[in-house]
Write a structure and sequence with these properties.
heterodimer; A: Rossmann fold; Rossmann fold; B: 11 helices
Chain lengths: 328, 335
Amino acid sequence: MPRIITYIDAINEALRQEMERDERVFLLGEDIGLSGGVFKATAGLLDKFGEDRVIDSPLAEGIIIGASLGAAMVGWRPVPEIQFADFITPAMEQLIQQAAKLRYRSAGAFECPITVRVCCGGGMGSGLYHSQENAGWFVHEPGLKVVMPATAYDAKGLLLAAIRDPNPVLYFEHKKLYRGVKDDVPEGDYTVEIGRALVRREGTDLTVLTYGSMVHTALASAEEMAKQGVFAEVVDLRTLSPLDKDTILASVRKTNKCMIVHEDKRTMGIGAELAAIVSEEAFEDLDGPIMRITGPDVPAIPFSPALEKAWMVDQPKVVAAMEQLAAY
Amino acid sequence: MSQEHESTVLEAETEISGHSRETLLGLYEMLVKCRMADEKARILFRQSKFAGNFFSGVGQEATEVGSAYTLRDDDWIAPSHRDWTANIIKGVPLKLCFAQLFAKTTSPDRGRSAPAHMGYGPLNIITPASSIAGQMNLGTGVALGLKKLGRDSVVVSFFGDGATSFGGTHEAMNFAGVHRLPIIFVCQNNLWAESVPLRLQTALTDLSDRAKAYGFPGISVDGNNVLAVYDAANDAIARARKGQGPTFIECKTYRWYGHSEIDPAKYRSKEELESWKKKDPVAQFEKKLYAEGLLNDEMKKAIAVNITEQINEAVDFADQSPYPDASELTDYVWA
């Protein structure tokens, strides 16, 4: 009997179950306690676990991360929340200079296993500063793991894996999926291995590398293309760092064509790295150009619905690209 | 151009009679050890025995010795780039300290961090980043972790006057105040943040005034008087151990040399430097001990000879240690 729950409920359940299982886990962030989170991801947790384990923080992202790192250094497993990915910038010093480098610069003497939950993504009419999908900023920093689930199943399994991982992990959760995605989530304990991509849809004609909310856009596009007799394989990366090169390359070698779909801006984005990997390691297998269907090189998603629609990668844009690539 | 600490410095109870002979001589010996090790490091840098740079703390020794001398092994230090000698005070073997300068494989971080950016896991000294004040956020987090563990260990976080302007410093101290964390913020105000004078850094006269904004006590002390620092720090440490929260201690002091070994510090006047050299924290304390009959020429010489031997041995160890193998480049990226 499947147990269908939403992506946000899967996140809430993972936090609750892991806090029950492991006393070292505590939460720190803005509005996570009394209010239960802007999107209610942490609803009910303050009542259940108390103020020592669900801490409403001052409005200061730097110390949300800094305090979490320090507590992790003495054995805690903090799960700080960045309410909107757009506002992660004040914590960049802590994430880039401290979290990513602490283990390296001390030759393993100090470790900081924190899981930073980052609410991201557009398509919700939230404007320039509540819509950014900026996971790509962190993929450039070895020492930080970066994951982004696309399903409720992965939301729970990746979050549990992240909290148990000995490295700092940035866990990007897409706000459009919070209540936009529901699927079968086991009630019990399980993890989704970090560093493993998943072929969401098998195909023979072209490979789509994607992640986050775009997985669903790619799947819908592949479904539409199947009616035309073009069979796209959709690879959900799930982990953005470290990348699962084996799954990526195996798919490209099978279909001989590759396109990358992401919501974030284009230039020097995750798609550029994926294209470079495929070009370097599967050049002989390619029968067409590596294509990127991405957000535009515009600073952020504008507020007007008409402009946001123009920004967002959607099914018609992906289908058009699939038709173009299939024609090679 | 000359700057002075204009305020009335609160003289803590600095009566020599309030301290044991053992403590007084221990503090003296540690001051001398830090001074000699630091001066040796500067010589080694000039001899090109190690590359990169070095951030001398000569002139500021009393700030570190006074506040870290009584720390236990389970206490933590969050040092800055100018606190290489804090490792010595907490008990890290000298040979490891010099191996750190030489970036050898025997250094605690196996040659990864810059020469003066030294930490040591077994004694809870956080390996610092170069980004100013970053250590205060980590230190505050460690203090949160210690409090949650229900332990009475404390954190001492060192930083300069320049670091007080950084936004992260505000975030750390505010958070430490909210949660009454066991951390002592020790500000080594040496009047110059690299080349920027204090008057362009802050409109405050006493940096300890900042503590008011965070709801915990702040005190300004003569940072060249080791007993003044020692007494203020011990009060703060005792409060922190009892769960009474953070303290901000401003140590008014001066660095004798440039920001780093490649900085001739021409932005400062000779008169200013000379006036501070007259307030040498080591010589002043030595004079007090002589006056009290606790120290004599023979003892002084024996201490210096002993430390010289230790340093020479440590330098030899560092010199003879191998550099890390190129194959180690990618070690310690991931756990």
